[in-house]
Each structure stands twice: as structure tokens, then as C-alpha cells.
Specification:
alpha/beta, five-stranded mixed beta sheet, Peroxisomal Thiolase, Chain A, domain 1, about 25% strand, about 325 residues, single chain, 11 helices, binds oxa(dethia)-CoA, about 30% helix, 13 strands, four-stranded mixed beta sheet
């Protein structure tokens, strides 16, 4: 009997309208457009400005679009996993809020936090539910409202991040175009270089933590950069060789969008030509869990059924990984 495999049967994405450009940032911190472009590749990002709106409001339009595109009724969805680092609130899970806002009533749902690698971790987890045969329609969301935890007085972090997200539908595959392999890794040693100091159980929110601006992202950029280049490059190479592929067999490389220099280094190391790399960092910056689904959504028209696609990410924790799949749409 053929084992059940998972296929991506739909993709969608959503970003808020408001743009935050490099020249806008020049007015907030001591930086300039040339530095940001050359050091990161970013020109502008999107920001969810509306008061009272959170990550679920980024994910909800993406999930509604996904249901429409895949002709799925909300009641048919079995499971929704939301990868996010900026949940609407500590609890309940943002996944539950998304289900409520989209009319998904017969599914169970939960959040998964692996920082910028969260979407890949959630995609791999979701694929296992399909492969087990217990679940037939699983939605994976990757979304973040990074502007809610960014210090717009810190030039080292505020230039990188933006808000946005997307979603994919996973279903049992009808052919060989499936999610084939994933390598996922973590190393908690890296947590000191990228984290949020306060607002969790170790240091709950207080007047002092707010005054010390400890509810914002803390990043030692150069350290993160070094780890990212090394581990992202390695894991992409690993997933390619483990599946008996050569660089020329890879039709598309879809990397997390944290820094154009990290993306280029990983692609070069694996020998993947620039023309095969999906890049939208110049428009959206680093949307954390949103980057990969937003790339999938934007490149959907260019991907062909059966294309060999490698997804890869690196993020806080540290977390990193790569997934090899064949495009099923
Ligand atoms: O999403 C997953 C996790 N995150 C990442 O993967 C991000 C990884 N890190 C990076 O992308 C880069 O480290 C940054 C873009 C954050 C910073 O770039 P960098 O080339 O590593 O800069 P740096 O931190 O080593 O700083 C170099 C210089 C410093 O000045 P001095 O000390 O050499 O005089 C910084 O103060 O650049 C200065 N600098 C800036 N200058 C203008 C830092 N930020 C800015 C800025 N504008 N925005």
C-alpha cells in the first residue's frame, strides 16, 4: 500500500497597506537609506498601524483567501497551526483566534514558536498529521506583527523587521509532488544573541521593564549573522545531498528573508543560481514567520508542477532548517 504523503494544495498571503520606508526610518533613528540597502537589501516594510489589531488580523485575510482559492469550506478544515512569535496575547493561542475569525469550527488549532524558522517547523509538523492518515485538510499559517515588539529607537533592529504573513493548505497527495524531506535543528546556546528580555515568566511585565525598554527585540546582529550564514548554508547543502540532488536539480530556493547577504551566502554555498532564488525582502523586510509563505504566494505563478523547491530558514533560539518538496499546484 502506498504511504500517504502531504502536498501543498494552496497558498495565500497578506500584508498591511502602510509602508515604512528607509527614508521614514532616517527620521526616527541615526541611519540612512544607503546603509540599510547595502547591509540588508531592504527598501521598505509594511506596518499594521490600526489600533487594536494583531497577528490574527494579518492571518485572517490570508486564511480566508486560502479557503476560497482551494474551494474549502471552513467546516472541512481539520487542523490549523499558527507559527508566530508575536501572538495576539500570551494565551489563548492566536491559532484559536484565527479559527474563530474565519469560521473554522471543526478543527483543533495551536500556535508554534520557533522564531523565524517557525513556518518550516509548523509545515513539517502539519505534514506528519497528513502522513499519519488522521487529518485531511491542514492549514499552516506563518504570520507576525513584528512592529509590536520592535524598538523604533534602536537602529540595529528597527530597520530589519516588518509585518505580514501567509498560509498554505496541506492535503493528502494525489501524485509524487509532495513534501519530501525536512531537516530541522535548534541550539539554545543562541538564545542570548536574540530574544525579548521581559514579558515572559522569567521577567514578567512591570513598570521597570517597560521603562528599560525590555519588551522589545534584543539582537546582537553580527553574532546572529555569523550563525545564520554558517547553519543556513550547511542545512541547505544537507537537504540537497541527502535527497541525491545537485544544485542544478533545484528549480527554486525559497529562503527566509532576514538579510539579502545571508540569502546570497546560502545560495552561493549550495551553488544555486541567483535566478532561482525568491527575494522580496526589499518590499517587506523580515516578517519572521511570514517570509516563506509570502514568497510562495508571490512566486506561485512562476512555479511549475513538479518543480524541486528547497525552503530554508534561520531564526532566534537558535532554530534553523530546510525542507525539500515538489510543487503540486
Ligand atoms: O531573522 C532571523 C534573525 N536575524 C537575522 O538573521 C539578522 C542577522 N544580522 C544582520 O542582518 C546584521 O547583523 C544587521 C543588519 C542587523 C547589522 O548589520 P552588520 O553589518 O552586522 O552591522 P553591525 O551590527 O556589525 O554594525 C556595524 C556598524 C556599527 O558601527 P561601528 O560600531 O562599526 O561604528 C553599527 O553601530 O554599523 C552600525 N549600524 C548602523 N549604521 C547605520 C548598525 N545599525 C545601523 C543602521 N544604520 N541602521
Amino acid at each position: 500500500m502506498r504511504s500517504v504523503k502531504a502536498a501543498i494544495t494552496g497558498v495565500s498571503g497578506w500584508v498591511p497597506e502602510t509602508k515604512l520606508t528607509n527614508s521614514d526610518l532616517e527620521k526616527l533613528v541615526d541611519t540612512n537609506d544607503e546603509w540599510i540597502r547595502t547591509r540588508t537589501g531592504i527598501i521598505e516594510r509594511r506596518i499594521l498601524k490600526t489600533a487594536g489589531k494583531g497577528t490574527s488580523d494579518i492571518a485572517t485575510p490570508a486564511v480566508k483567501e486560502l479557503l476560497q482559492k482551494t474551494n474549502t469550506l471552513p467546516g472541512e478544515v481539520d487542523l490549523l497551526i499558527c507559527a508566530t512569535t508575536t501572538p495576539d496575547m500570551q494565551f489563548p493561542a492566536t491559532a484559536n483566534v484565527i479559527c474563530d475569525k474565519t469560521g473554522i469550527k471543526n478543527a483543533f488549532s495551536y500556535d508554534l514558536n520557533a522564531a523565524c524558522s517557525g513556518f518550516l517547523f509548523a509545515l513539517t509538523t502539519a505534514a506528519k498529521f497528513i502522513e499519519s492518515g488522521t487529518h485531511k485538510k491542514v492549514i499552516v499559517v506563518g504570520a507576525d506583527k513584528m512592529s509590536s515588539i520592535i524598538d523604533y529607537q534602536d537602529r540595529a533592529t528597527c530597520i530589519i523587521f516588518g509585518d505580514g504573513g501567509g498560509a498554505v493548505m496541506l492535503e493528502p497527495a494525489k501524485d509524487e509532488n509532495v513534501i519530501i524531506d525536512s531537516i530541522l535543528e535548534t541550539n539554545g546556546v543562541g538564545r542570548k544573541f536574540l530574544h525579548q528580555k521581559a514579558g515572559g515568566s522569567v521577567k514578567p511585565a512591570s513598570l521597570e521593564t517597560v521603562e528599560a525598554r525590555e519588551h522589545y527585540v534584543y539582537q546582537e546582529g553580527a553574532q546572529v549573522f555569523k550563525w545564520a550564514v554558517k547553519n543556513l548554508s550547511k542545512v541547505v547543502q544537507q537537504v540537497v545531498t541527502r535527497n541525491q540532488l545537485s544544485a542544478k536539480d533545484v528549480d527554486w530556493f525559497v529562503p527566509h528573508q532576514a538579510n539579502l547577504r545571508i540569502i546570497n551566502a546560502a545560495a552561493d554555498f549550495a551553488g544555486i543560481g541567483q535566478e532561482k532564488v525568491t527575494i522580496n525582502i526589499h518590499k517587506y523586510g523580515n516578517t519572521t514567520n511570514g517570509t516563506i509563505p509570502l514568497c510562495l504566494m508571490e512566486w506561485e505563478e512562476k512555479f511549475k508542477k513538479g518543480d524541486n523547491i528547497v525552503l530554508a530558514a534561520f531564526g532566534g533560539g537558535f532554530t534553523w532548517g530546510a525542507t525539500y518538496l515538489k510543487w503540486a499546484l
